[in-house]
Amino acid sequence: xxxxxxxxxxxxxxxxxxxxxxxxxxxxxxxxxxxxxxxxxxxxxxxxxxxxxxxxxxxxxxxxxxxxxxxxxxxxxxxxxxxxxxxxxxxxxxxxxxxxxxxxxxxxxxxxxxxxxxxxxxxxxxxxxxxxxxxxxxxxxxxxxxxxxxxxxxxxxxxxxxxxxxxxxxxxxxxxxxxxxxxxxxxxxxxxxxxxxxxxxxxxxxxxxxxxxxxxxxxxxxxxxxxxxxxxxxxxxxxxxx
Length: 242
What we know:
single chain; alpha+beta; Elongation Factor Tu (Ef-tu), domain 3; Threonyl-tRNA Synthetase, Chain A, domain 2; 2 domains; six-stranded antiparallel barrel; elongated
């Protein structure tokens, strides 16, 4: 199969809580593997790529140490493996398992950052997520943020057990949504003219390709660890789980 005709079907957006799957290998290059479909989220939107492991038919275990999209053909997802045995080849069937605890932490923090963006009235200029913390950068010239207030307001939203849903909308409708919702992203990526939107019902709606929890209460308690001045107009807000 030519690399130009390959495509990885993504399972993680529709099944973010699923932890294991089986798939056929469609490409192997050095220590990187492409599967016909995958639950492994590839690095993007501030969310790290998933890790986990593959198991071959003979019981061989292969550690997956990262997941990325192809830089030239983003429909292809590469699973970076620690060591690629000679018998892992195109056409082989594998069983795959996510490092679920790590992924679930990413899901909780990603949703929490959407809440943070909703309570701070300023454009978002950067984002980063890890298993124990997350941060957003805001275009905010004046230092008007307070750690205790951010912590209090976030936990108040989390405790409301607000549903989180996804939907698709035509990219052409996004400018109107931007005006009515105060969405912080003005140039979201579109796939075949459609945007994947993540909505915290009644609180926030944003274009996002990441994985999220279904209810804000799943996030648990968080606290604002630090607010940093990164430049004259940039403020970084760092959150951690309690």
